Amino acid sequence: MKALKIVAAALGITLAALIVIPLIVLAGLFVWLKLTEEGDEEALELDQEGV
After folding, report:
1. What pTM does this model have?
2. Residue 1, CB-side half-sphere exposure with 13 Å CA sphere
């Protein structure tokens, strides 16, 4: 019975990791995209002023 609890806990932790890790990666990509998007807009504004 104790082994069954250990297997169930390991399975639960694995499933949680399979859900949480991709969400963290997507959140990081979203933040990176937002940060770089602001930088691109500033660069475009500077280019237009120079023309």
Report:
1. 0.59
2. 0
